[in-house]
Amino acid sequence: MAVPIAYYLVLSAILFSIAVGAFLIKRNIITIFMSIELMLNAVNLSFVAFAYQWHRVQGQIFVFFVMVVAAAEAVVGLAIIIAIFRSRSTLNVDQVNLMKL
Amino acid sequence: MHLVLFIFFGGLCVAGALNLLLQRHPINSALSLIVVMSSLAVLYLLLGAEFLAAAQVIVYSGAIMVLFTFVIMLLNAGEEERTHGSRAAYMVGIPGVAVLVSLLAFIFLSARSHLAQARLGEYVVSTSDLSKVLFRDLLLPFEVTSVLILIAILGAVALAGREH
Questions:
Q1: Domains in chain A, start-ordered, CATH in brackets?
Q2: Buried b / exposed e across A11-36, counting CB within 10 Å, b at 16+?
Q3: Which chain B residue's Cα is nearest to A9?
Q4: d(Cα B64, Cα B66) in Å, to the nearest integer?
Q5: Are B61 and B44 in contact (CB under 8 A)?
Q6: Residue B121 pLDDT
Q7: What is the pLDDT of residue A47?
Q8: What is the ipTM score, two decimals?
């Protein structure tokens, strides 16, 4: 039984919207960062779906690059979170209101 | 078969994402994110992306989420407390997200007749097809990402390795 590509795109939209909601509602800085990763994953799903639609490999290669950039971003972001926690000993974003560490 | 697998793993994805939203402890959110990423790997496999499914499991649910759980346990992160700022986010966030998802779903479902139907095993991209494009046409971006990773390593060491 075939599944329309539109269903995959709708699933990707639902995941992206849940991630946006989590980004707005959550107060813990690590959970906010995890919702950004979820947004990247949702967009990756739509890239793979469009690669299937047009039978082009380039869409999948774009997902590969997104994965590489997400890994680099996660490393730097978690290092920043560790630095913030060392100087403020809190993970609540409402108490992190200065640009300097 | 494809529809059953899609509904099962797509439902697992949405359930995991909602669990990430509803849990108050970060470690529970991290574990539900692992569920989302692993079921996304199965969806990639259904769409014929073999290499990406493997890379999703190894890179995302392996490396990145291990890093997340490691940091959560290192910082001994407890339950998040409700503060004043989050109430405004509830008021604006939930209607905004509902509008976003309904708008996107409307657009995609109205364009449904122009989009293809996905059948199991109809279009499978093997790793050799992928690497032919990656190492021939897109060699320069691939090399640039290695510089990016090097910069990320240096940045992480400079930020987190500093002693106070």
A1: 5-95 (1.10.287.3510)
A2: bbbbbbbbbbbbbbbbbbbbbbbbbb
A3: B108
A4: 5
A5: no
A6: 77
A7: 94
A8: 0.90
Q: Is B47's CB within 8 Å of A8's CB?
A: yes
Taking only the tens place, the pLDDT of each residue in B41-79 is: 999 999 988 999 999 999 998 899 999 999 999 988 777
CA distance A53 to B57: 23
Residues of chain A with C-beta less than 8 angstroms from the C-beta of B3: 1-3
User: The domain containing residue B142 runs over which residues?
Assistant: 126-164
Flag if A31 and B51 touch (Cβ within 8 Å): no
In 3D, which of A64, A39, A9, A51 has the Cα closest to residue B10? A9
Mean pLDDT of B12-32: 92
* B47 close to A (CB below 8 A): yes
* Structure tokens belonging to residue B79: 């339950």
C-beta separation of B39 from A12 below 8 A: no
Nearest CB to A91 within list B77, B97, B133:
B77
Whether residue A54 contacts residue B125, with contact meaning beta carbons closer than 8 Å, is answered with: no
Q: Would residue B32 count as lying in a domain?
A: yes
CB pairs under 8 A between A and B: 249
Q: Do A60 and B130 form a contact (C-beta atoms < 8 A)?
A: yes
- pLDDT, tens only, B120-132: 878 888 899 899 9
